[in-house]
Design goal:
The complex is a heterodimer of chains A (321) and B (416). With 321 residues, chain A is mainly alpha-helical. Chain A contains 14 helices and no strands. Chain A is flat, with a radius of gyration of 26 Å. Chain B contains 21 helices and 12 strands. Chain B folds into 2 domains: 32-145 and 304-366, D-Maltodextrin-Binding Protein, domain 2, CATH 3.40.190.10; 149-302 and 375-415, 3-Layer(aba) Sandwich (D-Maltodextrin-Binding Protein, domain 2). In chain B, helix 8 (154-160) packs across helix 9 (169-181), helix 10 (193-208) crosses helix 13 and helix 13 (228-239) packs across helix 21. Chain B is of the alpha/beta class. The longest helix of chain B has 27 residues, at 2-28. Classes of the chains: A mainly alpha (321), B alpha/beta (416). The interface between A and B is large, with 35 and 37 residues.
Chain lengths: 321, 416
């Protein structure tokens, strides 16, 4: 680079962040937003195996919501979402608290708890399927021990199969929540604990009333990660039940994939994806709004501060906003 | 955005050059044919090797593109056709899976080969109906699979005191009761939606009869679906559920076959590909296990199978390869060699059946009677409707849904 004079350097400094962001921005615009726009367009066409550029209005959406399998899928998603998120947060937090007691072999335990997350559900789901199978797994084993009345056949029961799937999913993801929470717990100032000890407050009370509220950001991160996992849940269902018995464990992602390929119905699959996207946006909007509100407030404060000091950096601020 | 366009434009000539080099390399090989298929299991790859060897013997160069999983292989083929870089040939099922591709003008026809080899005469009508669209042949059939065979364990029969194969549905139920009484699993069943679906096909064809079957799948006759006769078929289909074990949901078909092989279960209703499992367990037909294609001497024979389609191209060398493929695949010698490895039966009945096993010989004998041939539902209805019906059947099989509600759901699905 040739040396540049002071005023040009300022222009360059404004340009550099934009240039650096350009590849990412182009990817987001063309690949992500472009694909979304294209899917939405296809959802208004009568496309079957191949995309056809005609326009049939909301016909695919009418079909979608008259399909029993789709409504069952949405209900299952809601049930799974609640079970999975609550289960992971509670279990992950308890595991983190347990490890935070400076137990022996902490490193080993941390690895053990986090390990399921590192494995693909295509493999572990199969193991779960065998364990839960009433004629191969747990039920048969316990009966063999001399408890002939023992029954644990959730995976083949219409109204219990989603609990079996949530059980396996919680087993997989709670280690991740544990890791996040543990990082949060280790960030709690030691002096807080000492103060509590001097005041004679029992540890469970400290965790509940002081530490838990301080872990807000960790919970936020964990929640977002888990929520994304809920919306795209697919592999665990395919590996464990293939949506069965009957339609009892169907989920939207499986509906979309089946229609996209096997059933040669990309119009309907696109309509389903669009509905799923809108659902996610509806859930995300309040959160984005709250966060945007907070960011704007901070930006205003920063601007006020910068104005006072007389060294405004509009370029950087513009990029960050 | 402007800054990004330039590098793309700059890169384009380089890409073109690379493609040109690749293309000229392709021209150097005689009758080069790239074939996409999903035959990746042991027996299947041995079978496809027969096709490849026959093609090489005819002077061609075979480029094998095996992609595991039918869905995956088909969507790859479709994506490449749409993207302008099609393979020479691509596998589909003998069905309506490739109908949209014909409508969009993405396939070449092989009328020349078909006329020369008299396909109209030598191929079963059900297959011609699937591959000949608006007077043109758009695919070459390679095998016939029959998805609705009955398999049984001789050991289980002996234990339950069953002397002969059942000749009617009533006898079948009586045998199931006998098997149940001696503590065996009467019907080995894999509770996955596609298996529930083909069991229903089998039941409808064998118990309801050809006429009722065609009224549903060919004529989409909603009034027939609401009739007492059809409802009684639905009810007796559901009656089978009382003869499966608690571990059946989501069981793989070959795990169910293994139950028959070990003598733990009596019957399985499954396609002729199950034969491969018995063979792998060193069991012989007639001694350890038995097969029958339906109840009694007039039972219909469901015709399904695989075809190869030929993506549109104007390249004369590729068209020549496509026609050579079509000729080689349907020749009697290739057909017998292929069928033996695949477990299917040949697409033509004018072949020497001595080399085939007794189940396949039984199948070929039935196929000679055109009145017993019945096209599989995939040939008669769109993948979309087939999927919708599959959802209805799996729900009916697995829940307490009444026969009336299931019939209503089927009627609504075929009307829309």
């Amino acid at each position: 680079m040739t040396p540049v004079s002071r005023p040009r350097s300022r222009v360059t400094r404004q340009l550099v962040p934009w240039l650096a962001l350009l590849p990412m921005a182009a990817t987001v615009l063309w690949v992500y937003v472009g694909s979304i726009a294209w899917s939405v367009r296809v959802s208004f066409s009568s496309s079957r195996t191949l995309p056809i550029p005609d326009f049939v209005g909301l016909r695919q959406y009418e079909r979608l919501f008259s399909s029993e399998r789709w409504t069952v899928s949405l209900q299952n998603l809601a049930l799974f979402g609640v079970l999975f998120v609550v289960g992971c947060l509670v279990l992950g937090f308890l595991l983190a608290v347990f490890i935070d007691q400076r137990v022996k072999g902490e490193g080993l335990l941390r690895t053990v708890f986090l390990y399921p997350y590192a494995m693909s559900f295509v493999a572990t789901g199969l193991v779960w399927q065998w364990m839960l199978n009433p004629e191969l797994g747990l039920q048969q084993t316990v009966r063999g021990w001399g408890f002939p009345g023992f029954t644990f056949d959730w995976i083949v029961q219409q109204d219990a199969v989603m609990f079996a799937i949530a059980l396996a999913a919680v087993w997989q993801a709670s280690g991740l929540v544990m890791a996040l929470m543990l990082a949060g717990l280790r960030g709690v100032d030691e002096s807080l604990w000492m103060a509590a000890r001097i005041d004679g407050i029992p540890p469970w009370r400290v965790y509940l009333s002081i530490v838990l509220p301080m872990l807000g950001p960790s919970f936020g991160t964990a929640f977002v990660l888990l929520a994304v996992g809920v919306v795209k849940v697919f592999d665990v269902v395919v590996a464990m039940t293939q949506g069965g018995p009957g339609l009892a464990s169907e989920v939207p992602a499986k509906f979309i994939i089946d229609n996209l390929f096997n059933r040669a119905n990309i119009g309907l699959a696109s309509a389903a994806s669009t509905v799923l996207l809108l659902t996610v946006l509806a859930l995300l909007a309040p959160w984005l709004y709250a966060r945007g509100h907070a960011t704007r407030r901070e930006a205003r404060a920063a601007r006020a501060l910068a104005a006072r000091e007389g060294t405004g950096e509009p370029a950087v601020r513009g990029v960050l906003a | 955005m402007q800054t990004l366009r330039t590098p793309f434009r700059l890169r384009a000539p380089g890409l073109g050059l690379a493609l040109a080099v690749a293309a000229s390399g392709a021209l150097a090989q005689a009758n080069r044919a790239e074939v996409i298929h999903w035959w990746t299991s042991g027996g299947e790859s041995a079978a496809v090797k027969e096709l490849a060897d026959a093609y090489k013997a005819a002077g061609g160069t075979w480029v094998d593109s095996a992609i595991a999983g039918g869905e995956q292989a088909r969507s790859t083929a479709i994506n490449r056709m749409v993207g302008g870089n099609p393979p020479t040939a691509a596998q589909f099922n003998t069905s309506q899976q490739f109908r949209d591709l014909i409508d969009q003008g993405l396939l070449n026809n092989v009328d020349e080969v078909a006329t020369k080899n008299n396909w109209d005469k030598i191929l079963p009508a059900a297959i011609v109906g699937s591959i000949k669209i608006k007077g043109h042949f758009y695919a070459v059939p390679v095998d016939i699979h029959m998805p609705a065979w009955f398999w049984y364990s001789k050991a289980a029969f002996a234990k339950a005191g069953i002397a002969a194969e059942p000749k009617t549905a009533d006898e079948f139920f009586a045998d199931l009761d006998k098997l149940k009484a001696v503590g065996l699993v009467p019907l080995a069943f894999g509770g996955q939606p596609w298996q529930e679906k083909i069991t229903f096909y089998a039941w409808l064809a064998h118990v309801g009869g050809s006429e009722m079957y065609l009224k549903l799948y060919r004529d989409k006759d909603a009034a027939m679906v609401m009739s007492p006769a059809f409802k009684s078929v639905l009810a007796s289909f559901k009656r089978l559920h009382g003869y499966v074990d608690a571990g059946s949901p989501n069981r793989n078909w070959n795990d169910a076959t293994a139950m028959v092989i070990s003598g733990k279960a009596g019957f399985q209703i499954m396609g002729d590909w199950a034969k491969g499992e018995f063979g792998a367990a060193h069991q012989t037909v007639g001694k350890d296990f038995g097969c029958f294609a339906g109840f009694g001497p007039k039972s219909p024979y469901l015709v399904a199978g695989d075809v190869f389609v030929f993506p549109r191209t104007t390249d004369a060398a590729q068209i020549k390869s496509q026609q050579l493929l079509a000729t080689v695949f349907t020749s009697p010698k290739t057909q017998v060699a292929f069928s033996n490895k695949k477990g299917s039966i040949p697409i033509r009945t004018d072949v020497d059946v001595a080399g085939l096993d007794s189940c396949a010989q039984q199948g070929v004998a039935i196929m000679k009677d055109a009145a017993r041939q019945l096209p599989s539902p995939e040939m008669l209805i769109s993948p979309d409707l087939e999927g919708a019906l599959q959802d209805i059947i799996t729900k009916f099989w697995n829940t307490n849904e009444s026969v009336d509600d299931a019939a209503k759901a089927i009627a609504a699905a075929i009307k829309s």
